[in-house]
Fold:
Amino acid sequence: MGPMRIAITGSHGLIGSALTRSLRTDGHEVVRLVRHPARTGDEVEWDPSRRYVDAGGLYGCEAVVHLAGAGVADHRWTAAYKKEIRDSRVLGTTAIAEAVASLDAPPRVLVCGSAIGFYGDTGDRAVDETAPPGEGFLPSVCVAWEAAAAPAKDAGVRTVFARTGLVVAREGGAWGRLFPLFRAGLGGRLGDGRQYWSFIALHDHVAALRHLIDRGALSGPVNLTAPEPVTNREVTAAMGRVLRRPTALTVPPVALKAALGGFAEDMLSSQRARPARLLESGFTFAFPTIEESIRAAAPE
Structure:
């Protein structure tokens, strides 16, 4: 496929910056939606809280990748921050979807970030994209977040929801916090360690997003997780092996909740999500196992 013009929100985040680098390396033009007046030719202004997008800046884009949203691991989950988590996703997605729908020649695809939080706590039961939403705060956010893309879908734009798992990377997210702890010999399992983590290497996540852009048949929810989710106990053992550090500690749930607030629930809950639709569509993982993913991300 020849060079494309692609717009990205959240281009400064962990995934957005990696996706931007990957696309530009391959000769694609990336337009970054930013929350200030455009200062360079590759910037387009938007303001999710006001549902404003300078839609003219999306002209000629073949794809829009919408990744922006307040970080779930960045702050304690006060009532105000929970509202910000929800609003940043719902209002931002509404703004992007309405802007896309307003164009005379809309992009052929809108890839919206979402999360495997959609499924809630699944225990040791494996779920794929056919599973219904779970109960609680994060599932309710994910349902509203995906529903907000309706204007683009209704306008005939192929709309894909990238339900993201825990991204294995040293630069941010959950693993950005885990690597320094484990390197210091302070790593250990969280709670009883039996909860499943649906992980994905950052490299595979970016490759999967590009697969969603290029594959004209894929729409609706797609789990961006490695083929075999593993328990936190297995994650802990793999971290110890790769970083050659002891992992005898156990972090009790009460300590985790003190350190992480509401996000602790996400780390202690069990989500065993499988990437059925990615695999069916012919996607190949470069780092399918937890150990390969950690090795790919481990600090030198």
